[in-house]
Amino acid sequence: MSFHLGRPILAMLGVALVGGAAVAIRRPPARPDLEVWTFAQPHADAYAPLLPDVARQLGGGTGHDPSVAVRVIPNNALNVRLVSLLMADRRGSDLPDVVEVRQDAVGRYLGPPAGEIGFLPLNDLLATTGERTIDTPAAAGATGWAARSSADGKVYAHDGSAWRPAPSRPAGDYWIDRVVRARFAPYTKDGQIFGLPHDVHPTALAYRADLFAKAGVDLETPTPGGDFVAWPDFRDRCLRFQAYWRGRGVADRWALDLFAANADVLAALLLQRGVNLVEPDGRVRLTDPATAGTLAFYAGLVAGPGRVSADSVTGGADAWRRDLEAGVVCGVVAPDWRAADLRAAVPGMAGKWRMTRLPKFDPADAPTTTWGGTMVALPRRARDPARAWRLVEALYLSPTGTEAQLRPPLGILPAVPDAWPASPTVAAGDPLFGGQRVARLYADLAPQIPAQHLTPDSAYAVAALGYVLSQAAADLRAGGTAESPAFRQKFTAWLAARQADVERQIAHSRLTAGGEREAGPAR
Amino acid sequence: MPRPPASPPPPSYRSAAAKAALYAGLVASAAVALLPLGWMLWAAFTEPDAPGLTLAHFADLFARFPVGRWLANSLFVSAAQTVLVVLTSTLGGFALATYAFPGRRLVVGLMLGTLFLPSQVLLPGLYAVVLRLGWADTFAAVVVPGSVSAFGTFLFMQAMAKVPAELVQAARVDGCSELRVWWEVALPVVRPMVGAYTLLAFVGSWNSYLWPAAVLLDESNYTLAVGLASMVGLPGYEGRSGVLMAATLVAIAPPAGLFLWLQRDFVAGLAAGAVKG
Amino acid sequence: MRSRTRLAPYLFLLPFLVVFGGFFLLPLVQSLGMSVRAYAGPRASRPVGLAHYRFLLVDPLFWVAVLNTASYAALFLLVQVPLSLGLALLLNARRVRGRALFRLAMLLPFLAGNVLAGVLFTVLLAPGSGLVNRAVGMLLPAVGANLNWRTDPVLATVAIVAAVAWLTVGWGMVYLLAALQSVDRQLYEAAAVDGATPWQRFRHVTLPGVRPVLAYLVLVGTIGGLQLFELPYVFLQGLGPRLRGLTVVQYLVIRGFDRGDLGTAAAVGWVLVVLITLAAIPQLRRMRGSQ
Prior knowledge:
- With about 280 residues, chain B is mainly alpha-helical.
- Chain B has helices at about 15-45, 55-65, 65-100, 105-115, 125-130, 140-145, 150-160, 165-175, 180-190, 190-205, 210-215, 225-230, 240-275.
- In chain B, helix 2 crosses helix 13 and helix 12 packs across helix 13.
- Chain C is about 75% helix and about 0% strand.
- The longest helix of chain C has about 35 residues, at about 1-35.
């Protein structure tokens, strides 16, 4: 009797039976006792050497050190998987014990009412652990800090010059006071803190010191009448720089590399001006005069006759490296992570770069901004949140952890100011920047970052702003002028339309935020 | 009436030019169709700016990603799904084609009514059903929903309507069970269609992305399509197309093999379906 | 034997009916129910009536998705159907040698599927190193080899349409070739006797012969085009320049699986059903009319 479904089906039947048997007898892979998920290989690389020590610490000499593993999952997959797991209401070892969520994905987790958010509120843990201790009254400190002395067990406070006994303070500062306060804001909803900031990401400007010097253009002297470089003046200096090189036959040389296709950099500059596109109370600030003015100016930087920016990044990492090496891109808006990217991309350009503060629009603007970031969160229904928190303390907050993060190649300033003065990395010079103490500059800027707020609709608002930016840039490329009334008019209409979109979206999001507890689609 | 013998066509300039144009068009089209695949082979086996062939991309691929696992997962999922869907479709199609029974019109109506429904409309509901069954991150979540097809059942209903009724009756008189009639009488008649549908079902399952990506959560459970899509955005692979192309080659090899095995049936089956319109 | 034949069809249909009911009809109904609820996490939801549908009607992003999807579907058809027909006509010419080989070559891309095609075209169109850009750089030095097919809205559209055409032209060609080969040769001979021009022969003999298959290809192409997702998703790695990567299904996925907003996602699914029905009904009616 022949097999009337054909031999391919017979073969597949074999494959399916063998495969099915293999699936049936396959033991689930042994899960480590503690698992950290991250989207970034460099994070995992930085923490890998610490893991054996951390495991020993968590074991506490009982002889049963837990196994700890850091897993790298591509950002998209990580979020899709985590959202699915939380929606499926999985618990225990199905969930990671600790998860790193990239800043642009944080908002989506904060949509439900605070009680339904999938992460553990950290307020209590932050307020009761991590008391600051000092060995001697000569330890480094800053005004207002409190610490318990390990010598006499008493509480001391720092008055700006030295530690003084402070019997009125009940205890040294806990983590809640020891972590950069502004960095909790993005992860907070209704007063509950759902994540620990991994970083501060203060932002400055890296530029080709050698090429600017040759052109005789100085980027750092403040604009007359102030103590900062004003953006219009800064743009003029950039144009002078480009004119110098064009006069020498170098046409493809640009002072900056601002994004023209999306609003990531623009949103950071707006934050510097105190503008969150969606404020925590739900106000949308796309049509805000500060937003409109900044956007119009920024569009003029990336397109039209006043263009001072290559749009190199959109070509991918390789194109960026090529353009850096060829001197097509001579300036980079650089948070600490992007400075690390720069070091990795062009290690051969040692000494050619310098770092300076960002220009400002207005005296009231912050001297820096913050761009990007990572939230460290504990899924609420994971196995043992208390133990996971101890892992977080050891990995992200302890001196060894913060130093591992600060050291190149990761080179990211941790959100724990105690770690900055003590760090050899902060004290050291940076070869790419001709020995300039770049980490020190970041540490100086870090306490001054503006508070960022993230809502489920913040990413939507940034995308909407990016859309208007691309419209504006296209208009300028087609011959429009940023100062003309016609441009103004179009531009205002674009912003108003997008403002209405975002407001509609927020109203729609509120539908879910107001949900009462009821049987959902899944148990 | 016998046709008059055709006189040999004069070797005119026009027909020679037409012939040249015909072949030029065909060769160019085949080249366009094959060029991306050729480039894939080339990039998978060579290092840019270096002479000679290399297996380095494959070594890198299998070292950095659980591609072996993905391949095994894909083979299992697609094979199981194909076997099941061919079985259920031929059985169901046979039932609908050869028997008159109460409820037949309802079943056919439901099938036809949902034939063109986009599968995406099911996603949220199917997702909820699968979660409720506790099937998140299991192969059952992929294989079971894909084990039947309204399209396939409909296809075989139409194809098996051509099975001569006398043949079926004769088999029954000979004492064949109904299942034997399906197996010995109906299936051989639609054999090319079975081959064509086998390939369609396998390729469809092999390349499906959205649903497996939604329910297969752990990297070790990915199918090749899901794994491959997850590789594209990774930093560092922008300029390293060799690894991506090696992965693509691994992913296209099994359906290509099956295609070569079944291509005769496939073309015949498509033709049968096409002529019917 | 009577009782045997009475029971048999139900037994044969049982597997199909169980799975079809449990994993198709039930989720379908469930999707409808979910589309009128709002979900906030696994255990919180509430009825919101038609709020999701009303929101979709006024959400410009959704309309961008609809317009993108419709325009892609139209472009695919405009490119795919004539190319498939042209190739089928070429292959149908008398005395073509190697017909089976050409057919095989042109059918091969169909095996790749959307994800693989997305990956393949990502590499093929990579700035600088990709095959296409190298060719452009060589043939048109003024344009150069650094065209970025992923960040320019027009180039991205061209790339996606080209990738879909690459995937589907051979497939359509096989259908059309089969139809062409079944056109009665005597009709051509009669036309030749009547002194018909090649165009008239095409118009009055060939085209009516393949019309049902053409209609079928247009229908399948429309439905497939409206469900476009994986290819731009893989190729553009996001929404793409000027949101050219945003399709209706992508919108559904972002809502449902990136944000966990299953209610709106379910509503998007049903709107997609309406769109496909609207696009398919006139075509189905015409197909029925022509038969």
